[in-house]
Write a structure and sequence with these properties.
Length: 260
C-alpha cells in the first residue's frame, strides 16, 4: 500500500465535516500516514493525530456555542481571544508536542509581518493550531516560537497539500469544506460581518488561483454543505453527517488509489 496523506482545510463550523469524514474512513479501515490542517482542519487533524477518536471529537463540539470558545479581548490586535478554546482542546487531547503525536502532523498559519505561509511542525501542538485558527481582526494574533504575529493559515493556504509530499505521502487526499465562498450572500454591514465577508472573498480567490496545485493532489473532495455559514456555531450535526456521507462514498476510491 502507498502512504496516505490527508489535508484538512479551513472552514470554521463547516470543519466539523472533517470529523464525520474521519469517522467514515476509519470504519472502512483507512488511516492516514500523514495529516496536515489549516484553521478548523488543524484542530480536527491535531486531535486525530493525538489519538482522539472522531466520536469523542463529535461529542466535544456538537453542543458548543461561540462564547464557550472565545472571550472579549482588550488587546487591539483582535476583538476576541481564544483562551477558552485552548482549554477545551487541552482537555480533549492533552498538552503535546508534535513529536509526541501518533501520526505525523503539520499545520499552517500566516505570518502577517513577513506576509507568508508558515508551516508549523515543532513545539507545542495547541499553540500552533490556535495560531492556525486565529481569524485576523477577530482573534488576537498568536505568538509561536520565533513567530510573533501569526493568524489564520486560510488567508494564504486554506487546504495545505504541499507539505504532505515533503512529509512522505505518495497519495494525497484533500478535503475542502469551504468550496466557493464568492456566491452572493447578504452582508449585514457591521464591522465584523464586512470583515469576514472580505476574508471569504479573498480566501476563495486565492484558492482558485492555486487550482494548478490540484494536479499534485490525487483526490480533491468537497462535502455538500450548501449555504452553511462557517462563522455561525450551529448546524454542527448537519456538517458531521455530510462529512460522514462523503467519507462513506469515497472510501473505496481512496483504497484503490493506495493500491495502484
Amino acid at each position: 500500500m502507498k502512504t496516505f496523506g490527508l489535508a484538512l482545510g479551513a472552514g470554521g463550523s463547516r470543519g466539523v465535516a472533517h470529523i464525520g469524514f474521519l469517522q467514515a474512513i476509519g470504519e472502512a479501515g483507512l488511516r492516514p500516514d500523514f495529516v496536515t490542517g489549516c484553521s478548523m482542519g488543524s484542530i480536527v487533524g491535531a486531535c486525530y493525530c493525538a489519538g482522539v477518536s472522531p466520536q469523542d471529537m463529535k461529542d466535544a463540539v456538537i453542543d458548543l456555542k461561540l462564547f464557550d470558545l472565545a472571550s472579549l479581548s482588550l488587546n487591539k490586535g483582535g476583538l476576541m481571544k481564544m483562551t477558552k478554546a485552548r482549554k477545551h482542546i487541552a482537555a480533549l487531547m492533552g498538552e503535546k508536542n508534535f513529536d509526541e503525536l501518533e501520526i505525523p502532523f503539520a499545520c499552517v498559519a500566516t505570518d502577517i509581518i513577513k506576509g507568508r505561509v508558515i508551516v508549523l511542525r515543532e513545539g507545542n501542538v495547541i499553540d500552533s493550531i490556535i495560531a492556525s485558527s486565529s481569524i485576523p481582526g477577530i482573534f488576537t494574533p498568536a505568538s509561536v516560537g520565533k513567530y510573533k504575529m501569526l493568524v489564520d493559515g486560510g488567508i494564504l493556504e486554506r487546504v495545505p497539500t504541499r507539505e504532505l509530499r515533503r512529509m512522505g505521502a505518495e497519495v494525497i487526499v484533500a478535503v475542502d469544506v469551504l468550496g466557493n465562498l464568492m456566491v452572493e450572500k447578504e452582508v449585514k454591514g457591521n464591522l465584523v460581518d464586512t470583515l469576514l465577508r472580505c476574508i471569504d472573498i479573498m480566501d476563495t480567490r486565492t484558492t482558485q488561483r492555486k487550482r494548478i496545485m490540484r494536479k499534485y493532489v490525487n483526490l480533491w473532495l468537497e462535502p455538500e454543505l450548501g449555504p452553511m455559514d462557517q462563522y455561525a456555531v450551529k448546524d454542527l450535526e448537519f456538517a458531521y453527517e455530510k462529512g460522514y456521507e462523503l467519507g462513506k462514498a469515497k472510501a473505496e476510491t481512496i483504497r484503490a488509489l493506495l493500491r495502484d
